[in-house]
Amino acid sequence: MEIDKKFTESLWLGITDIYTEVFECDFIKKLIQGTLSKNIFCNYIMQDDLYLKDDIKAFGELAQRLNDIKDSEGEFFKKMSDDCIASEQFMHNYYEKKYNIGFADKKIPVIEEYTHYLMEVVENEEIAIAQAALLPCYWVYNSIGQRIYNHYKKEKINENNPYKEWIEAYNDSNYDAYTKKFIQIVEDSASIVDDKTRKKMYDAFYKSTVFELRFFKEIY
Description:
This protein has a single domain, classed as Up-down Bundle (Heme Oxygenase, Chain A), CATH 1.20.910.10. It has ten helices and no strands. The protein has helices at 7-14, 16-24, 26-33, 38-67, 71-98, 109-124, 127-154, 164-169, 173-190, 195-219. It is mainly alpha-helical. It starts with 6 loop residues before the first helix and ends with a helix.
C-alpha cells in the first residue's frame, strides 16, 4: 500500500486540538506574559529534571537497538539526546541557580506515567513505534518555542520577562535542526512498515502528546 506523501503531517494534524490546548493553557499563557508564579515554574523545572533523566535512558535504549541495524540513526539519536538534553539542562541550571531550585523527591503522577510509558514502548515495541512515542517531546516543544518567540517579538512583550531563557531554549536553531531530522526519520520509518504498525505509531504519538498537555496542566 502506498502511504500518504507525509505520514508525519497526519500525525501533527491528529494532535492539532491538543496542541492548541497546550498553547492556550494557563501555564503557557502566563509564561509568555512573564506573570507565571515562580513557585509553579520551579516545580515544573524540578519535575522536568526527573523527566529528562528518563528521557536520556529511553534514547540510549533506542540508540542501542538501532546500532544493530542502522548505525547512522543510532548515532543520530545518541548525539541528539546528548546535545538537546544538554541544552535543556543548561537552561535548567540557569534557573536552578537564579531561583535556588532544589530537587524533587518523586515524580508527580503524570511524569511517572509518561516516563514509564516511554520506557515500556522503547523496550518492547517496534523501533518505528518507539520513535513516534519519543517525537512529541521534541516536536511539540520546538513548535511551542517558535510560536511563543514569534508572538513574543510581535507583541513586544517585556524584555525583562523572567522566562525569556526558557522561550529561547526551545527556539534554538540547533534544537530545531535536530527536531526536523527526527521528524524525517519517523517519516522514513513509516514508509517501510505495514498499516498496523503505522496505526500504532499514530497512537503512540498521540498518547505522548496528551502526556505533554497533562504535564502543563497538572503542574499548574
